[in-house]
Amino acid sequence: LAPRFNSNVKVIQKRDQCLFLEVDIVPEEFHQNVPTTVPLLGDIGETLYSMLTELDDWKYSENSKWMMDLLANAQKNRDTVERMAADHSVPLNYYAAYTPIRKFLEQSDVLVVNEGANTMDIGRTMMPSVLPRSRLDAGTFGTMGVGHGYSLAAALYCRDHSPKTKVLVVQGDSAFGFSAMELETIARYPVLSLSAECRYDELCKALGGDGYFVRSVPEIEQALAEAFRKTDGPSVINVIISTDSERKAQLHPWLARSKV
């Protein structure tokens, strides 16, 4: 879906009229949620560069109330996430489970596949992309079931073109379940899958791979280290998190509202 706007959003204000400027490479995306006043068809980088050249040296004041409020809110969000990530009580919450994974990625040559609902949304902030073309997820449509296919294609590419690079798949339970039997295909190729809930680790073992059932941060760290010492075959690290674990509170309810 295209972005959903609060009724008070003003992108360009002209007299009493609210004007929306939209940049997109697909013309069919214009006028989806609200009428686009100024549709600009083109690459967003090139388009913004052209717009900036018209602004000369103008910059938005860093001392404006809007900017100060924005920075304060960003710091508040960081503090909230850090507090949740530091809570290692069992069963884990999302942020605590992601912390050792993020640290592991910082020192490893890994291509990340991330899929799920909260698992993917939180993963986008907890597993920042440092290198280009090193991350795959379900994209803006939130399509479920693509993770295993992505991981297999990525593993085959790495096998032929970047042998030292491994694939890490971070999925929620629903995402895993949508295409779980693709693990039978993946078992023929090198890939590491990370999932949550149920005994998915036993499924991987039954297909000749390795499975790890973990509940704590040290167990995640140990399982990641052991799985990445392998030279072939898949591994599933089954991380059990709290059934009450949620993402941090969202300012706009529609950001987390169920579509069911």
TrEMBL record:
CC terms in the record's Gene Ontology section: peroxisome
Catalytic activity: an (R)-2-hydroxy-long-chain-fatty acyl-CoA = a long-chain fatty aldehyde + formyl-CoA; a 2-hydroxy-3-methyl fatty acyl-CoA = a 2-methyl-branched fatty aldehyde + formyl-CoA
Pfam families, A to Z: TPP_enzyme_C (PF02775)
GO BP, sorted A to Z: fatty acid alpha-oxidation
E.C. designation(s): 4.1.2.63
GO MF, one example: 2-hydroxyacyl-CoA lyase activity
Keyword annotations from UniProtKB, A to Z: Lyase, Magnesium, Metal-binding
Highest taxon in the source lineage: Eukaryota
Magnesium listed as a keyword: yes
SUPFAM superfamilies (UniProt xref): DHS-like NAD/FAD-binding domain, Thiamin diphosphate-binding fold (THDP-binding)
UniProt domain Thiamine pyrophosphate enzyme TPP-binding: residue ranges: 121-189
InterPro entries xref list: DHS-like_NAD/FAD-binding_dom (IPR029035), HACL1-like (IPR045025), THDP-binding (IPR029061), TPP_enzyme_TPP-bd (IPR011766)
Keyword Nucleotidyltransferase recorded: no
Cofactor(s), names only, from the UniProt record: thiamine diphosphate
Protein name as it appears in the record: 2-hydroxyacyl-CoA lyase
Source species: Haemonchus placei
